[in-house]
Design a protein that fits this description.
Radius of gyration: 18 Å
Shape: globular
Number of helices: 3
Number of strands: 10
Distance between the termini: 6 Å
Strand content: 35-45%
Oligomer: single chain
Length: 197
């Protein structure tokens, strides 16, 4: 997990045009995976999976990418429109029109077919980057009929595109790596070798 934060921060530093490169010692003492960093009005805000919160998301803020302040839990699953029940993953926050929009994945409480994985994507909104974020609707933004996670936005030529990952426990992608993982405990050897995040 810490490696993901280090890679994310390194990528952010490299992407900031015109900024003087600097080295930041890692790992940061921040306990999350799937880190997402947003810059807004002179401050960086980092959101992620897990951490010191339950059934939701926390946030950290920094003015220099070195010292981070825990801002508390900024999203709670039991907000007035909350629809998720567990497995809150991969939040990303985008600012548009003075509002902050959080995309995230969670297990949807409506599960008539009793799917093992019923992950969907939600959108919550706040007036501040530190929340509280409230779901726009009492359901995910759409249901494609299979589990989905890890929503991202791409803005290109004035258009906004949503892209995401399909969970593949039911319809796995056929590949050389997938075949290898199906052969017994291959995935466990891979994890032990440190090749997974």
């Amino acid at each position: 997990m810490m490696r993901k934060i280090w890679i994310g921060l390194l990528s952010l530093l490299m992407a900031v045009g015109g900024a003087k490169a600097q080295f930041i010692a890692n790992p940061l003492p921040i306990p999350f995976g799937d880190p997402y960093v947003m810059y807004d009005q002179g401050k960086y805000y980092m959101y992620g999976t897990g951490g010191d919160v339950k059934n939701g998301f926390g946030a950290y803020s920094s003015s220099n990418l070195k010292e981070w302040k825990f801002e508390g839990q900024v999203y709670h699953h039991d907000n007035p429109n909350g629809w998720g029940i567990h497995s809150f993953w991969a939040p990303e926050v985008y600012k548009k029109g003075g509002k902050y929009y959080m995309l995230y994945s969670a297990q949807w409480k409506q599960n008539p077919n009793q799917e093992k994985e019923n992950f969907k994507i939600g959108v919550a909104v706040s007036d501040k980057p530190t929340g509280p974020f409230i779901d726009l609707n009492d359901r995910p933004i759409f249901d494609p009929g299979y589990p989905i996670i890890d929503a991202n936005l791409l803005v290109e030529n004035g258009k906004i595109y949503l892209y995401y990952s399909r969970c593949c426990y039911k319809h796995p992608v056929d590949s050389e790596v997938a075949q290898w993982a199906k052969k017994g405990d291959g995935i466990m050897r891979w994890k032990k070798a440190g090749c997974m995040g």
